[in-house]
Specification:
The chain is of the alpha+beta class. It has one domain: GTP cyclohydrolase I, C-terminal domain/NADPH-dependent 7-cyano-7-deazaguanine reductase, N-terminal domain (GTP Cyclohydrolase I, domain 2, 2-Layer Sandwich). The chain is globular, with a radius of gyration of 17 Å.
């Protein structure tokens, strides 16, 4: 049996700091141990933050990322640091949500990926942003993202 080389990680097993912005954040990937099967990986970030590019006020979102890996899976510590790098990044809800999806697709080249950005209201209007890389593979079980529509105090 041939032993596969261990992947090199920028963060895993090392002391890391939160990147100042997403442009310098590093998303690490690891070989998918089950690349012969279709399965869904889900990451949920209920306290995602970024900055409004117009007002400088903080924006908050509940993100749900689902993907079907191909050859690679994302290393979770690097994903956490990448998502935290948006804390001081000025961008609209749509830009943040779609950029995260596209950055993950560029790094992982998954069979399929979707992201739901459920943004908390500011100015009285919640904004939900959804993006996916295409059609999911046939036969893959896709659970509901589990985030109720915003109902205020009702």
């Amino acid at each position: 049996m041939t032993k596969k080389p261990k992947p090199e990680f920028a963060h895993l097993g090392k002391t890391s700091t939160i990147p100042d912005e997403p442009d310098i954040a590093i998303l690490d990937r690891a070989p998918n141990p089950h690349d012969d099967s279709d399965f869904v990986v889900r990451f949920v970030t209920p306290e995602f933050t970024s900055i409004c590019p117009m007002t400088g006020q903080p924006d908050f979102a509940h993100l749900v990322i689902d993907y079907v890996p191909d050859k690679w899976i994302v290393e979770s510590k690097s994903l956490k640091l990448y998502l935290l790098s948006f804390r001081h990044h000025g961008a609209f809800h749509e830009d943040c949500t779609v950029r995260i999806g596209k950055d993950l697709v560029a790094t992982l080249k998954p069979r399929w990926l979707r992201i739901g950005g459920y943004w908390y209201p500011r100015g009285g209007i919640p904004i939900d942003v959804f993006w996916q890389s295409g059609k999911p593979p046939a036969g893959v079980w896709l659970p509901d993202q589990g985030v109720a529509p915003y109902r205020g105090r009702g």
